[in-house]
Design brief:
Blueprint: H1 2-14, H2 32-35, E1 49-55, H3 73-81, E2 83-89, H4 95-104, H5 108-111, H6 135-141, E3 145-151, E4 168-171, E5 175-178, E6 193-199, H7 210-213, H8 233-262, E7 269-275, H9 290-293, E8 294-300, E9 311-313, E10 317-318, H10 320-329, E11 353-358, E12 368-373, E13 376-381, H11 398-408, H12 414-417, E14 427-431, H13 449-466, H14 476-486, H15 496-501, E15 518-520
Parallel strand pairs: 1-6, 1-7, 2-9, 2-10, 3-6
Antiparallel strand pairs: 2-8, 3-5, 4-5, 4-15, 7-8, 11-12, 12-13, 13-14
């Protein structure tokens, strides 16, 4: 905690430490965004609405991304009429850490909200400093009606009524979730809104009615898996089901657009469609390869084609830019601590690099950092002695069990087996132009020695100047919660001390995991 207070105090004094700036050196301060004029700052137009269509667990596999097997006509049309960003890198490969970053406008490692499913109980409560206002609070202060239809999943403690309107449900582990609502629920229809609609995306496959929702089933014989997955019927079927989930998402987006138009809101609403992180597959979600952190992102604004132009933008951007852009478009001053930039500023400059971070995910303790540049990806594994397939929540999946069995039977080739090996390489470097699947590690290749040094230095300087809080031990109360819930599956040595100190704790809080959501009505 001491490191957090010291680091954040310094941050607030000098401005936000950028995780992705090109015009300044790694870890340097950047306050240019506040100086830049927001698109509607001096305009006499009515305040625009901002709507996030926030999707879970999908990578860029829409039709407009070149995926031939999916049926996504609505999203493809929106992409062709709006701005499609093809190189969007999220701050984290897991939902709660990434969503916490998006709400604060800062890397999750800057504020101490980097560990998955933190601050969910009174004992493990963790509050942001008073100086930090979340994105919905900033919109509220500017006179906006705010709502979030679906899960929040934030790793900090908060009073939901200070962030959003509307009734919600509360869970002792999974946090708070807004009940289904939209802009039509606001009492004053002339009030501008900042809303989020959460879609299940790749998690649609867990729905009992998933099969019934598919109108365009995908021929399994046409599936081409990434080279690091075994060509097994179970894996093929799971990948096909993931692609089929895109069709459901597309229809849901069509319904949202139809309602916006029917309610007369489409013309004055900036719609931002994007995902929290990549697919739920092994080596994707919770990891910093492209499959875990690269997401689809489309901006569409029917009434302002001069701001959101029909274009494809291939430059490197951070998910944190989405938060900053949302404020800027609304004419709201962007706080100094925000690390993103306004993507529609005429003076916007492309980034040299974007940082992403993975830390504890439930009971699985890890620390990974990545530096994504235009051509290269550098990954630092801080626990190389731990397998990429440490015990985790996904061990119960048939996909995982089949893949692990193939590994143990020696039926995987070296590329497919690598993620299952008991140890990892401390550093990884990939040429994304020639190796988009990130399978040929260039760390030992002398030809790329300078690139390795460059990317290593970027990360080291960023860790130092941002005071990356992942370098410090996690708070005891957070680890106690994980041990209490997950019991014997929590095998990392960080739990050993707690087992001795609290002999009755392990598994004692498992009922929290299966508790029911409780409805909370706002007065």
């Amino acid at each position: 905690m001491t490191q957090f207070i010291r680091g954040l105090s310094a941050l607030l004094m000098v401005g936000a430490i950028c995780s992705c700036s090109k015009q300044s050196s790694p870890g340097s301060t950047t306050g240019e965004l506040v100086k830049n004029k927001a698109p509607l700052e001096d305009s006499k137009l009515i305040k625009p609405n901002i709507l996030w269509i926030y999707v879970e667990d999908i990578s860029p596999h829409l039709g407009s991304d070149g995926e031939p097997l999916v049926h996504t006509p609505t999203l493809d049309q929106i992409a062709s009429q709006g701005t499609k960003f093809t190189n969007t890198i999220m701050p984290a490969p897991v939902c709660s850490a990434g969503r916490s970053a998006m709400m604060t406008g800062m890397m999750q490692t800057t504020t101490g909200v980097h560990n998955h499913h933190s601050a969910r109980t009174p004992e493990s409560a963790f509050f942001l400093p008073k100086e930090i206002k979340t994105l919905p609070e900033l919109f509220k202060d500017a006179g906006y009606y705010t709502f979030n239809s679906g899960k929040d999943d934030y790793n900090f403690s908060y009073n939901r009524e200070e962030l959003y309107e509307g009734d919600y449900a509360k869970h002792p582990l999974y946090g708070q979730s807004g009940l289904k609502m939209d802009w039509s629920d606001r009492p004053d229809k002339s009030q501008p809104f900042f809303g989020q609609i959460q879609l299940k995306g790749g998690k649609q496959i867990f729905s009992r009615t998933f099969k019934d929702k598919i109108k365009y089933p995908i021929d399994r014989a046409q599936i081409q898996l990434p080279p690091y997955y075994p060509n097994d019927p179970v894996v093929i079927n799971e990948w096909a089901r993931y692609l089929e989930s895109m069709e459901i998402t597309d229809r849901e987006v069509a319904t949202i657009f139809e309602k916006l138009e029917a309610d007369g809101e489409l013309e004055n609403t900036l719609v931002l469609f994007f995902a929290d992180h990549g697919t739920r597959f092994l080596r994707h979600k919770q990891f910093l390869y492209e499959g875990g952190i690269k997401v689809p992102f489309i901006a569409y604004w029917k009434g302002q084609p001069n701001i959101v132009k029909t274009a494809q933008r291939d430059e490197l951007i951070s998910g944190l830019d989405i938060s900053a852009t949302s404020l800027a478009v609304a004419g709201i001053q962007i706080p100094d601590y925000f690390e993103g930039k306004n993507l529609f500023d005429p003076q916007y400059k492309a980034k040299e690099f974007v940082i992403s971070a993975r830390d504890r995910c439930d009971f699985t303790i890890d620390r990974i950092r990545s530096v994504r540049t235009e051509r290269f990806k550098y990954i630092k594994n801080f626990y190389p002695e731990r397998s990429g397939m440490q015990p985790s929540y996904r061990d119960e999946w048939k996909l995982t069990q089949v893949s692990r069995a193939l590994y143990e039977q020696g039926k995987l080739n070296p590329v497919q087996a690598k993620h299952f090996e008991p140890t990892r390489e401390p550093e990884e470097l990939y040429d994304l132009v020639n190796d988009p699947h990130e399978i040929n590690n260039l760390v030992s290749n002398k030809k790329y020695a300078q690139e390795l040094i460059k990317h290593r230095n970027i990360l080291n300087l960023w860790i130092k100047n941002s005071n990356d809080l992942g370098q410090y031990p996690e708070r005891e109360e957070s680890l106690k919660l994980m041990l209490g819930i997950w019991g014997d599956t929590a095998i990392n040595p960080e739990f050993d001390k707690l087992r001795k100190q609290y002999p009755k704790l392990s598994g004692s809080q498992y009922p929290l995991k299966n508790a029911r959501f409780e409805k909370v009505e706002q007065l």
